[in-house]
């Protein structure tokens, strides 16, 4: 029997960001409005795209059009559902997401933690972005899109990755670490997954594997969650106190009760004595406390402080996502 090869496609979900931003002056790379240009137009304007696609088709959907500082649970919910629906189809090779740089790392981690492992270990979900608006004299979006497509088509690629400035980062490690430069992301101690060279990936580490603890159906919980568990982030600093944590524990009309706290501790998880006492009180009344570090590199070492859970190497913003997902089942 002759097996018919199914023609493949890449689905691109647009969510906004600077990559879709415009300014009135092409020389202005900061005074722009994000999320103005539709994803279909962005794709149509990339030179050399057909050559990189090599017969694979590109279809786009405008899932949202937001500045990612305003990223919402509603968009995340829609993203998780659409990405998993598309990945489950035989003719979909990969899903690509255009996103603002400001919260890209949170969305990347959210998808890594929420999508079904069997899909993530088979196909790639590629987030890409830009630091300069589409109207710029020298925009970085078109090259990033081209590179993201090249990653999506790389044989064996799988998992949630981010592509920016010729570099491939894994969802677990990727972190925005520059406010302005086009090469704004880092993978910290772990280093990037690879680099792009003329539409070819030079892989340095293995493609990411889905989290093993994702046995239960997180997508189902997300679909059912009208209200996500409220988890806030507090930080340790010189002159810190109990005031912020104590205020967060107070009930407020129209605000859901606090379910979790991530503390961006100093160094290897150290806390001001008064903040530590406040976190202990929070834990005693049933608020889950997770200790991360405000350091850009390194992790809170497990043995150092047993009283509060540690973030398992996740940055404070990613630890918050992990804690929300963990609490979601217990709503
Ligand atoms: C955003 O995050 O949506 C705006 C900033 C950017 O994309 O660089």
Explained architecture:
The structure is a single chain. The protein is an alpha/beta fold and about 325 residues long. The protein has 2 domains: about 10-205, 3-Layer(aba) Sandwich (Rossmann fold); about 225-330, 3-Layer(aba) Sandwich (Rossmann fold). About 30% of the residues lie in helices and about 20% in strands. The strands form 3 sheets. The protein has an 8-stranded mixed β-sheet with strand order 2-1-3-4-5-6-9-10, sandwiched between helices. Bound molecules: succinic acid (SIN). Succinic acid binds next to loops.
User: How many distinct beta strands?
Assistant: 14
Ligand names: succinic acid
CATH hierarchy, class of the largest domain: Alpha Beta
Which H/E pattern describes the elements? EHHEHEHHEHEEEEEEHEHEHEEH
The low-pLDDT segments are: none
The gist of it:
The protein has 331 residues and is of the alpha/beta class. It folds into two domains: 195 residues, Rossmann fold; 103 residues, Rossmann fold (3-Layer(aba) Sandwich), CATH 3.40.50. The protein contains ten helices and 14 strands.
Fold blueprint:
Elements: E1 9-16, H1 39-44, H2 49-53, E2 57-66, H3 73-87, E3 92-98, H4 104-114, H5 117-120, E4 124-128, H6 141-152, E5 159-164, E6 167-170, E7 175-176, E8 185-186, E9 194-197, E10 200-203, H7 218-224, E11 230-235, H8 243-249, E12 258-265, H9 273-284, E13 288-293, E14 309-310, H10 316-328
Helix pairs in contact: 4-10, 8-9
Bound molecules: succinic acid.
